[in-house]
Structure formats: C-alpha cells, structure tokens
Specification:
Layout (H helix, E strand, L loop, with lengths): L2 H22 L5 H57 L1
Helix pairs in contact: 1-2
Length: 87
C-alpha cells in the first residue's frame, strides 16, 4: 500500500471515529442525532472527495511531467545518434 493510500485511509478512519464518538456522546434525541450523523457524513464525504481529487491532480501532473521529461530525453538521444551517424 502506498503512502497516499495510507494517509487517505487514516484520514477516513479518524474522521469516522471522531464523528461517531461525538454524535453518540451528544445528549440529543434520536431524530436529531440521525440528522447530525447524515449531515456530518456528507461533510466528511465532501472533504474526502476534495482530498482525493487534489491528490489525483497532483499525481496526474507529476506523471505528465515525468512522461514529458522522458519523451524529451528520448528525442534528444535520437537526435544525438542521428548526428553521430551522419559523421
């Protein structure tokens, strides 16, 4: 498991435990507690979605940069070899 997956997993577990503990210890009626659970779960879901989207954007950007670097390196090597062959 890579570091990003561990971080996201830890975040999800911590968020879920925090929300559950906070809601279960609150002195409210069942209806209010269920509504708060639903609201908090939506908030956590939105936060996780934003975190995952941001992480994926970073990964995509890094991947595209590396791919471009490798392509440029390969092109440079081919150009160098063409020049050597001409001599």
């Amino acid at each position: 498991m890579n570091a990003t997956a561990k971080i996201i997993g830890g975040f999800l577990a911590g968020a879920a435990l925090g929300v559950a503990a906070g809601l279960l210890l609150a002195p409210e009626s069942g209806r209010k507690t269920r509504k708060r659970i639903l609201d908090k779960s939506k908030e956590v879901t939105d936060q996780v979605a934003k975190t995952v989207a941001s992480t994926m954007d970073t990964v995509k950007s890094s991947y595209n940069k590396k791919l471009e670097d490798y392509a440029n390196s390969g092109k440079s090597t081919i150009d160098t070899m063409k020049e050597k062959i001409k001599v």
